[in-house]
Amino acid sequence: METGRFILYTLIIIVGCNIFGFFLSIMSLHTNLFTKYRIQKRKMKANVFYTRLPLILFNILLLVLISSLGLYYLYPIIFSNLLELNFDVILMQLIIILLIDDFYFFLLHYWMHKNKFILDRIHRIHHRAITPLALDYMYVHPLEWILGYFGPFFALFLISLFTPVNILAFWSYQFIRNMHELDVHSGYKSFLSKWIPFWGESEHHDLHHAKLNGNYATTFLIWDNIFKTKIR
């Protein structure tokens, strides 16, 4: 696969997920279709979300630019240029990327809460969303998500030391990670997540936004159990 097509398809996944998140957020603000499934009774005001939208859109634009540049240089070094339907390899690499990325994020997230300077100057922006909407996952200081973006690239580099990264594993990671972030910030109760062992439910992360400290894990709940940071 040519580098340009690889980057284009990756961006379609990223931008497509965020477009879905935008409409989910708008639906949450302007309809009562799923009100009974909301975790918190408190509802965000539409004007508050719209004041946050410029930073969200800026972060998404920055995400697109940095992803395009990074993948342009990494594609010939790390990735297999073939669309190989090897499901064992895809599943194994997908799990490795998710685990490494999520453990890195847990440590980063924990540090951002325990370091008062970082919490007040950077991470506090994200926690203005006490009752978050789906797209609030990108309502962060740009430096925060850029630091968080190192996680999957650590995983990709590690895998590439042994074998090229399967493109489909990487695309699967992008889709799952983006959709999960939208889910846990949606403010709605989990339906599918509770049936997946150790998978982060929206109730878990929503409680983190409501109480600030604790429940630092997102994709996998095992980190909060291991490090005893789980709250109820």
Give a written overview of the molecule.
The protein is built from nine helices and no strands. It is mainly alpha-helical and 232 residues long. The chain has one domain. Helix 1 packs parallel to helix 7. It is globular and about 50 Å long. The N and C termini lie far apart (47 Å). The mean pLDDT is 89.
> What string, H for helix and E for strand, traces the elements in order?
HHHHHHHHH
Task: Give the count of structural domains.
Answer: 1
Radius of gyration: 18 Å
| Strands, total number | 0
Global outline: globular
Q: Catalogue the unreliable spans.
A: none
Task: Please describe the biggest sheet, giving its number of strands, its sense, and whether it closes into a barrel.
Answer: none
User: In DSSP terms, counting alpha (H) and pi (I) runs of 4 or more, how many helices?
Assistant: 9
> Structural class, from secondary structure content?
mainly alpha
Mean pLDDT over the residues: 89
Q: Helicity range of the residues?
A: 55-70%
- Oligomeric form: single chain
The share of residues in extended strands comes to: under 5%
How far apart lie the N and C ends? 47 Å
